[in-house]
């Protein structure tokens, strides 16, 4: 159980934490390979193999999250292709109630995401979650992905917070490890970031399925 008296600042990831990761997974694993194959005259298996090789080589870096980079690399208008399936963008269960509860408790709530500014703006346009935020920070503004400890020191120069009185919720264990190494005091991992994916066994961090597990909703 989390003692909310020990928390002043709440930092929240977006994709897989507040929003259903199904949209992103479907795009990168299903929709993009189809569009890439059509554009470059490949069969689907060839397209999937080429994309996996290119994408995995950048995993955990800022480029991995950069829509401009992938537009150039893949010779596709990635933001436009993302909009083709925007009907799949959705809040995870209890997200709105959780954000409203944080506002009632007068916590300082920050959206801290690796999402590229173009993708971020698109999702905020669809979901409106920015209305509950006191600040929104994309790692692209700080030139480091959240997986890097450099991100966290840069973040503290960008916005005021006390690490030991901060709760950070994310679905990425590598990101949470970097936050732990920096000294963030309260860490929580999401067990099922993709509503159509499995419940994951998280061993290194406290983990929840829904927000009611850390807040009475």
Into which percentage range does the β-strand content fall? 5-15%
Q: Write down how many β-strands occur, each being a DSSP E stretch of 2 or more residues.
A: 6
Helical run tally? 9
- How many distinct folded domains? 2
The computed structural class is alpha/beta
Question: What does this molecule look like?
Answer:
It is a single chain. With 217 residues, the chain is of the alpha/beta class. The chain has nine helices and six strands; from the N terminus they run βαααααβαβααβαββ. It has helices at 22-40, 44-56, 67-74, 78-83, 95-104, 117-127, 139-142, 149-158, 173-182, and strands spanning 9-12, 108-113, 135-138, 166-170, 186-190, 207-208. The chain has a six-stranded parallel sheet with strand order 3-2-1-4-5-6, sandwiched between helices. Helix 1 packs across helix 2 (44-56). The longest helix is centred in the first third of the chain and has 19 residues, at 22-40. The chain starts with 8 loop residues before the first strand and ends in a 9-residue tail after the last strand.
